[in-house]
Amino acid sequence: MSIETSVRNRRAQTDVRIVDAHAHAGPYSLFFIPDAGPQAMVRVMDRCGVAHAVLSSHLAIQLDASDGNAQTAEIVRSAPGRFTGYLTVNPWQDPVGELARWGDDPAFGGIKLHPDLHDYPLTGRRYAPVWEFAQRTGCPVLTHSFDGSPYNDLGHVEEVATRHPDARILAGHAGGTPLGFDLAIETAERCPGVVLELCGSLNSGQDIARMVDALGADRVVFGSDFPFIDLRMSLGRVIFSGLSEEDRAAVLGGTMTRLLRWRTGLGR
User: Fold this and answer.
1) CB-side neighbour CA atoms (13 Å) of 170
2) Which of 130, 126, 173, 128 has the alpha carbon at shortest distance from 153?
3) Quick one: angle between helices 231-239 and 205-215, nearest 10?
4) How far apart are CA 252 and CA 230, in angstroms?
5) Is the four-CA dihedral 162, 164, 168, 169 of positive or negative sign?
6) Which is nearest to 193 in space by CA: 138, 246, 156?
7) Per-residue pLDDT of the chain (268 residues; tens, 9 = 90+)
8) 221: Cβ–Cβ under 8 A, 6 or more apart, which residues?
9) Which domains occur in the chain, in start order?
10) What positions does the domain Amidohydrolase-related occupy (predicted)?
């Protein structure tokens, strides 16, 4: 049964290993999320045929990186095989200490930066330990990216990628806006280490197909921002984007699986 047929029949697909490259868990202080715990997330993932999600706790990205990273590790261990953690680095909350504490922990397969939430530019020196770690290990770094941001627009992404050509940088939201998508594509064309991550409210299947056409499916990864954004809507945009089966499988999970393999045993 094809993945499109599974969706139309409201059945979880099993043909493609889907990996959500951008997810969160737990309560968020600014608005109510009905059920953001890992058990509820797994139930939705199962209904959608999503095998795995890479996530950071809301606590880590917003208020407390130390306790939030511990929460992320606990969530990963509570559902073996379903989650990989992003180690959140807040530039104001002991980046070196957090990398030392969690850098070797197999619960974590990537690093998460959110310059907009942390009021600190992606290009700032407080992130230097992150780029050193990423270049040394191959650990992918997911950063928020948004056109026009004073902290993480595509110019910031390009500057960091140029400085650190061996780092694998996931541009979260792929620039966030229609103009941002164009700028994200152009940035990735100039910077081979940049991979576009798809979550957001403004992109379409056509935008996704354009990214893949310009960069190749090995430079674009599916992410949903679940439970901020409905996983089903985010997934549907990729499934019905008109990509070939091979490219769609890479975007939905193959490329992110490969990026996670720097950590022995992850993403397999």
Assistant:
1) 31
2) 173
3) 60
4) 16
5) negative
6) 138
7) 678 887 787 888 888 999 999 999 988 888 778 888 899 999 999 999 999 999 999 999 999 999 999 999 999 999 999 999 999 999 999 999 999 999 999 999 999 999 999 999 999 999 999 999 999 999 999 999 999 999 999 999 999 999 999 999 999 999 999 999 999 999 999 999 999 999 999 999 999 999 999 999 999 999 999 998 889 999 999 999 999 999 999 999 999 999 999 986 444 4
8) 19, 21, 170, 195, 196, 197, 198, 251, 255, 256, 259
9) 3-262 (3.20.20.140)
10) 19-261
Q: Which of 132, 133, 158, 135 is closest to 145 using CA atoms? A: 158
Instruction: Say if CB 57 and CB 87 are below 8 A apart.
Output: no
Residue in this structure with the two tokens 């992150």, named with its chain if needed? 130
What single string gives the DSSP state of each residue in 6-50? HHHTT----SS-EEEEEEEES--SSS--S--SHHHHHHHHHHHTE
Crossing angle between the packed helical segments 65-78 and 95-102, to the nearest 10 degrees: 20
Do 138 and 107 meet the contact criterion of CB atoms below 8 Å apart? no
Residue type present at position 126:
R
Q: Can you tell me the distance from the alpha carbon of 233 to that of 210, in angstroms, rounded to the nearest whole number? A: 19
**Cα 122 to Cα 141, 169, 172, 244, distances in angstroms:** 11, 12, 13, 34
